[in-house]
């Protein structure tokens, strides 16, 4: 029987947010929510599965900016303090719900999660969760993919190859700082692809990448196995196709597992509903409201009927949905294998990591249930395995090379989300700065001391301005102003360095202050923007 496989792949990314002199911004809270909702629960699940000898495999692409935030002592301390404040709020809320046993029971369970997160983060991982992910990678349970330095839409800079080289090389330096395994895969931010990228990615020694399904289905010629097996580009880079239908089984807003009525409504958080005074111990509502993790209502609630969250009902639904997913994937892979004369096939299920825990509160529990039920079921375990991409590289066709179509995993399928009327003005600035950075790298190839520090600062700020996070946030009314300011700050900082090099003077006070605020990419070398000789 063919070894048919499910491949789970998570894109772990957040925009770089660090404000030493201005704590408490809403954007900073996104990091805390990610730690509490996704990464700490995921590590607990991985630890439990390993302890119980239950097979599991997950591929993860950690963006360098997220790694930098995870490893930053300032943000680590702020997260620990945030957990303490959240715990205090929960205890106050416990008193307020003394006369409501059902709410009190639910709140007690959520308080336990806060305590678990604090214990794990502070005592077990000593505020360094990347070390534990690296441990699982070393044990073969997790595969870590490298990715670009910032969440950059690489195809939009394909005519400036120095940008793509700088993004890849800086990302690799960061990967080697945080992880000990050697990456064979490269995650393209948002699966953003154009054919010319294949040769560039391959030139850095990467074996494979992952693309949206229509990139392969619209290729010429289309791969023999469709989306169910990896294939090769003309450059020799192996490409996997994301199984969009499998992902929609989870993400579809109407019929997807994550939208079930029994699941917790993550948008009905007391942080959005309580008054300013009640929340003052946790955050200043004038800086913007944000989630606290305390929620009472199920997704099935409506404007006329409020349905309180039932933990037992949600657990039952998690198990049923995990079973349904396994059966669906097993049947689909079996039929695909039969059509391919018994060849092994795989289903690549790639998601933003935020789906599990933040967007879908029970998402991490669902993953746990999928692994456990597959191990328990003799019917499924014989036909479906969990695999890591690197182990499946040789599974597909190598004699029929393809040229995948221009694509991304955005809803549009292409790039309307990152290049539209709300953000297109930004590209003229970032492209002009990129051309200037290449010129600086060529004009000052061997500089040291203060000038080298200045050039490294310029390269750092340019990479930050290239991230599509700011461009995407410009589409969101509540985040647009912040994104605009962050983008302009980076372009302005780059311009200050550029003009100072022309006048042969730069303020060391300004340089030091800016370095302290954006203290990422400490090993950056501005020469990555040099033209290839």
Describe this protein's structure.
With 533 residues, the protein is α/β, with parallel strands linked by helices. It has 2 domains: 13-395, 7-stranded beta/alpha barrel (Alpha-Beta Barrel), CATH 3.20.110; 424-529, Families 57/38 glycoside transferase, middle domain (immunoglobulin/albumin-binding domain-like), CATH 1.20.1430.10. The chain is 49% helix and 8% strand. It is built from 19 helices and 9 strands. It has helices at 26-51, 64-70, 73-96, 101-124, 130-138, 161-178, 197-203, 213-217, 244-251, 270-273, 276-279, 311-339, 363-376, 378-381, 424-443, 449-466, 468-473, 480-503, 508-517, and strands spanning 4-12, 58-62, 142-147, 186-187, 208-211, 231-232, 238-241, 346-352, 384-386. Strands 1, 2, 3, 4, 8 and 9 form a 6-stranded parallel β-sheet that branches. A 3-stranded mixed β-sheet has the order 5-7-6.
Specify the helix fraction band: 40-55%
Shape by Cα distribution: globular
The counted number of beta strands is: 9
Oligomer: single chain
- H/E element sequence: EHEHHHHEHEHEHEEHHHHEHHEHHHHH
Predict the CATH topology of the largest domain. Answer: 7-stranded beta/alpha barrel
CATH class division of the largest domain: Alpha Beta
pLDDT averaged over residues: 92
CATH superfamily of the largest domain: Glycoside hydrolase 38, N terminal domain
Specify the number of helices.
19
Largest sheet report = 6 strands, parallel
Distance between the termini: 51 Å
| Tally of structural domains | 2
Structural class: alpha/beta
- What Rg do the Cα atoms give? 24 Å
> Which CATH architecture of the largest domain?
Alpha-Beta Barrel
């Amino acid at each position: 029987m063919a070894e048919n496989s499910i491949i789970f792949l998570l894109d772990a990314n957040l925009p770089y947010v660090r404000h030493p002199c201005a704590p408490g911004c809403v954007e900073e809270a996104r990091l805390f929510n990610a730690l509490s909702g996704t990464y700490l629960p995921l590590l607990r699940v991985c630890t439990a599965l390993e302890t119980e000898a239950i097979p599991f495999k997950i591929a993860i692409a950690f963006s360098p900016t997220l790694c930098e935030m995870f490893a930053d002592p300032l943000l680590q301390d702020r997260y620990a303090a945030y957990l303490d404040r959240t715990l205090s709020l929960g205890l106050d809320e416990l008193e307020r719900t003394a006369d409501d046993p059902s709410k009190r029971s639910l709140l007690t369970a959520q308080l336990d999660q806060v305590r678990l997160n604090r214990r794990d983060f502070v005592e077990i991982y000593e505020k360094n969760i990347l070390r534990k992910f690296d441990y699982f990678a070393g044990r073969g349970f997790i595969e870590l993919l490298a990715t670009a330095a910032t969440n950059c839409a690489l195809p939009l800079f394909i005519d400036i190859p120095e940008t793509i080289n700088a993004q890849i090389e800086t990302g690799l330096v960061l990967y080697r700082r945080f992880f000990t395994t050697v990456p064979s895969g490269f995650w393209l931010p948002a699966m953003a692809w154009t054919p010319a990228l294949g040769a560039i990615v391959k030139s850095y020694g990467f074996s494979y990448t992952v693309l949206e399904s229509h990139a392969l289905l619209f290729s010429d010629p289309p791969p023999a196995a469709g989306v169910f097996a990896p294939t090769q580009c003309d450059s020799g880079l192996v490409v996997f196709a994301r199984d969009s239908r499998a992902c929609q089984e989870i993400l579809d807003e109407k019929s997807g597992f994550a939208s079930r009525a029994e699941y917790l409504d993550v948008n009905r958080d007391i942080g959005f509903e309580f008054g300013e005074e009640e929340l003052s111990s946790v955050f200043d509502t004038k800086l913007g409201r944000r989630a606290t993790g305390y929620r009472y209502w199920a997704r099935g609630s409506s404007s006329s009927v409020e349905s309180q969250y039932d933990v037992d009902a949600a657990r039952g639904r998690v198990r049923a949905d995990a079973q349904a997913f396994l059966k669906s994937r097993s049947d689909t892979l079996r039929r695909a294998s039969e059509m391919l004369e018994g060849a092994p096939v795989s289903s690549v299920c790639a998601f933003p990591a935020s789906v599990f825990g933040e967007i879908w509160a029970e998402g991490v529990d669902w993953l746990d249930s999928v692994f456990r039920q597959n191990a328990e079921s003799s019917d499924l375990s014989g036909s479906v395995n969990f695999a890591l991409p690197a182990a499946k590289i040789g599974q597909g066709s190598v004699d029929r090379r393809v040229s995948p179509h221009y694509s991304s995993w955005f809803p549009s399928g292409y790039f309307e989300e990152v290049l539209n009327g709300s953000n297109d003005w930004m590209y003229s600035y970032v492209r002009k700065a990129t051309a200037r950075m290449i010129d600086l790298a060529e004009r000052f190839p061997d500089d040291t001391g203060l000038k080298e520090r200045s050039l490294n600062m310029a390269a750092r700020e340019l990479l930050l301005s290239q991230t599509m996070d700011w461009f995407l946030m410009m589409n969101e009314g509540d985040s647009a102003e912040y994104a605009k300011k962050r983008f302009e700050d980076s372009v302005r900082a780059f311009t200050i360095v550029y003009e100072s090099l022309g006048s042969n003077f730069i303020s060391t006070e300004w340089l030091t202050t800016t370095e302290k605020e954006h203290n990422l990419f400490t090993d950056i070398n501005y020469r990555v923007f040099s033209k290839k000789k």
